[in-house]
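Journal club side-thread
Mid-discussion, someone asked how the predicted structure for our own chain would compare to the paper's figures. Pasting it here so we can look after the session.
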Amino acid sequence: MKAIDLRVVFDTNPIYSDSATDVVRRSTATFLREYRKKERLQLRCFMPEVVREERRFQMFTKARATLRAMQKLECVLPGGLRISEEMLSEGIAAHIAKTLDDLGITTLALDTAKVDWNRVCLDVVRRDPPFSTGESEKGFRDLLIGETFIQFVEASADANSDVKFVLLSADERLATMVRQRLSGRADVTTFNGVQTLGGFINSALADVSDAFIKAHQLAATRAFFVRGDKATLFYSQNLGAY
């Protein structure tokens, strides 16, 4: 059977964890470890730099709150706590780098020189995706993620390749932006989480090809009928009587 080649880019929401230590949500990390072992699946994962930096900020904010609470105990600790916010920030950055390496996630940088900022300005005032509708124009971070994904797709392969590019995001405005900008490409899709991505992968892996049928056809024929072999289905089920 033909292998499935997927390149998955993560938004923040599928990996977010309200934790100072979990870079990637545990259920998502488990999914990646499990699916990377599947046969006939080449799963390559990526994270926009803005997502990586957002997770660093989120984790540092959580850890700093814990540190400040612990610092209140310095007066009763011999020698004090001796942990600075700078040490904390550096430690989190190193932990993120190690975690992403362990999970096989590559960071994607955005080439800001290739972004059409005139179009961005119009999208903001018109509230076009990924910007939210309403009086406030929320969505700039999503724009950076979308532009990173689009640059990655356009630089990686042409529309006739066997590679499938996936944006994993629960933000429908961001997904809409990507679908609109890459509407001519059949090799691009979006999913709102690892559950839907897993369903897609399982369905794709379950397809039975002509090669698979041919490889098992002889064995199936022999199991059904071999002249004189009473163990075959033809004789054991007395099919000759019908």
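Post-session note: Residues 162 and 223 are 36 Å apart (CA to CA).
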